[in-house]
Amino acid sequence: MSDSTIQHHEERRDVTFRVHRFNPQVDSKPYFDDYTIKLERGITVLRAINYIKEHVDSTLTFRAFCQAGICGSCAMRINNMSKLACTTQVWDELEKAREPGVIKIEPLRNLPHIKDLVVEMDPLVGKMQKYSNWVDSKMPESNWGKKEFLVSEEEFLAYDKATDCILCASCVSECTILRAHKEYVSPAVLLKSYRMNVDSRDSMHDKRLADLVQDHGVWDCTHCYRCQETCVKNIPIMDAIHGIREDAIERRGTKDTSGARHAEAFMEDIEKKGKLVEATLPIRTNGLAWTMKNLLPMAVKMVIKRRTPPPPPLVKASKGIDALRKEFREMTSHVGKDHEKKSGE
Amino acid sequence: MKLFDIVIVGGGGAGLYAAMEAMKTNPGLNIAVISKIYPNRSHTSAAQGGANAALANKAKDDTVEMHIFDTIKGSDYLADQDAVEVLCSEAPKIIRELDNMGTPWSRMDDKTIAQRPFGGAGRPRCCYCADKTGHTILQTLYEQCLRKGVIFFNEYFALDLSVDGSSSRGLIAMNIKTGKIEAFPAKTVIFATGGYAKMYWNRSSNAAGNTGDGQAITYRAGIPLKDMEFVQFHPTGLRKSGLLVTEGARGEGGYLTNALGERFMKRYAPEKMELGPRDLVSRSLETEILEGRGFDSPAGSFLHLDLRHLGADLIKSRLPQIREMCMYFEGVDPIDEPVPVRPTAHYSMGGIDTDNFGRTVMQGVYAAGECGCVSVHGANRLGGNSLLDILVFGRIAGRAAAEECQKFNPSAISEAELTEKEQELRSFMRPQGHYERYGALREELGHTLGMNVGIFREASKIRQGIADIESLKERFQHVRVFDTGDIYNTNLTQVLELKNMLDLAETVAAGALVREESRGSHTRTDFPTRDDEKWHKHTVYTIEGKHPKLGYKPVTMGRYELQERTY
Lengths: 345, 567
Ligand SMILES: Cc1cc2nc3c(=O)[nH]c(=O)nc-3n(C[C@H](O)[C@H](O)[C@H](O)COP(=O)(O)OP(=O)(O)OC[C@H]3O[C@@H](n4cnc5c(N)ncnc54)[C@H](O)[C@@H]3O)c2cc1C
Ligand code: SF4
Ligand code: SF4
Ligand code: FES
Prior knowledge:
- The complex is a heterodimer.
- Chain A has 14 helices and seven strands.
- Chain A is of the alpha+beta class.
- In chain A, strand 6 (113-115) and strand 7 form a beta hairpin.
- Chain B has 16 helices and 21 strands.
- Chains A and B meet through helix 1, helix 3 and helix 4 of A and helix 3, helix 4, helix 10 and helix 13 of B.
């Protein structure tokens, strides 16, 4: 028979939510409350904690608004990962739970705590202001409304993805540098800054860029990729960070900060000395993985831009350098060929 | 706090445009925006489709005049024609202005702003940015307000107007982060607090906070509301949450089926089937449910939107967002299972009665956006006209307030009034006589509205609805706020929102009962046709004692005579 005889079947089970509680008015320190409720499959974490608030404990406090993954209100840490409660299925989280049947819920990190799952968003807004996260139109305001700018599809695509950001602050919560330095610009603000800087209608690119290369700016990022892995809208945040850095080196050279100088030294090693000298590399201080992710792509791009044929890295083999050398060869192999072609013409 | 020239309540598209325009009109003014959530989170961000403007980028022969006609016809001739003229002739300007300040728009090959076809429009004139138009408009306006240094009071909950006879002294609001009740003395107050369709609760596509706060505040202050009975329903909301599955799913060939496995649209629109007009499809789904051919579940009866026959490839390539939504919010993968859907309350046409400049009858009080009713949507708004409405009339209200504020000299808001307000809120926290849980009341309100004042209306059912609302209001007196703290007390704010919804629900039901005709979104099974002789007029509600008193206002006509509305 057809659908009609099949009753809609839903799996049900008990689920425990272990929720971070803290009300500064009465509590001296934070603690966890366990709430166990019976739920059916298909319920989101937000619906579950809404249920708890309505039926079990009305003092439980969190933000939520659209319930549809659009407004960015409901970001919280669920099983040690920052994400939106309204787009997270309880059943999926049960699979990730460390303790069977228990889902842990905590507030976002790296922003001042207000109560239970609510954190202060003003610092983020403050940084948006500090880094001029707005288009400063090339058109004087008195002319607005008369004529539209002509913008190619290509120009639009440059910032399209970045404008998906809903300022939920999940990436902010997971950022490694922010853990240590609260003044750090923040991944979402870098993303927005980049979005403004590639908009052909904007007029304050240079000022914004000058701000971004100062202390706590774009060079402080460790390239840990945590923000990008966290982003609830799957925005390639690292492309924005790379984009700002390349732009900075191109337009401002390497005078700005030690981060830029690192990249420069690394490149010089390759270009001028024709080899990688371990001592000048930040491998020892930052680790091999860091160097590979952070400096290698940048150096390769610089080399490619300058069209210098990359000499083979000649270094006394150490374990770390070996891997780096291999990676470098692969990444630059086509540049040599291109160059040969060019000079042969 | 010192006296403000303009206090804007609401940080959605309407509020932010008002703020920008007011600063532009007179940069020397002391302006504040108060919002119960961070402005960028406002419900304007939920609008995906786009905003209408006769730019004629796509259809070269499109004109403002055609846009005007489509809007008036769409409204079932209840819109005021002079207001519609303002809306449509300002439209191209406002879209270009948004572009000039940095709003991302999808583009056509010739680099101009892209436009797509939309329901009820004779030409493709809906300007969009992928499927995130509202979001990008709101982001841009927020960014521009930060650029201009607009002062924001974020996470402040507006409670009431302070009224002195027939004029306003300003606003009373609660700082959510501290719980403190604060006065915002102001020469002018602009309400831009969004719609009230959330009163249908689980049967609504709206955000949790679209509770009609501004409408309720002004109504309590003696300002009239207008056309409250007109609430638009969208055919395919997800069963559990009411969230929208956009029309694209049916456009790609999705079927609507009932518990008998029938494609039931063959009964209602044998030719167009699933692609009939929005209100007709909504009524068809509702009929199937009422006649017992739906599926039962703890979350209520529902029908199936079946996409399985489209195949995994098509679903993944053309409907990725819809698939994601079904998985996130319903736990159902449309590749393997049909999606549970039912009609959902979507938009409120009614609101605070204003003139074409956003002025209300009270001196110094303005309204704009979905919370206002100018009226440009009449009995039914067209897709893509609401974003336009909030931008155009947000801007007009901002300018009007900036130009007029110097005329007003409001008296001071007394400490006593604040203390009284504080005590009123505290009273919900007293255990004696307070035992009701707001969650239950909220759900019952949504349920009775959906059942009795929903898509199909009829005198006996509406009377039932009115009785239910009355008894819910009675029970509300006993609602308990269990969280007795000051800091970020969402238990308290949700109770206050419930109070607002209850007050407004009464006006919606009262209007539905008196309007003995069917027009636009308002369908009376006992009066199935439009009755222009008796009902070609606006309903107006003022509070008298505790209940609404009804009055009427003529519709402003213009070039377009009454016609039957057929598509
Ligand atoms: C799912 C969905 C899709 C839609 N798609 C479209 C579309 O494609 N095209 C279109 O034209 N329209 C669309 N609409 C309608 C349109 O989005 C809304 O009508 C419009 O965005 C309302 O804007 P607003 O500025 O009036 O209010 P909102 O954006 O709702 O903003 C209200 C503001 O008021 C504040 N506020 C409310 N109460 C208080 C209080 N008590 N104290 C302090 N502040 C308060 C809030 O914080 C918020 O900032 C859609 C609506 C929905 C629900
Ligand atoms: S990559 Fe940079 S911005 Fe992103 S989380 Fe790591 S340190 Fe933070
Ligand atoms: S970048 Fe992604 S994670 Fe970060 S705030 Fe924006 S949407 Fe959220
Ligand atoms: S409630 Fe809006 S993103 Fe979750």
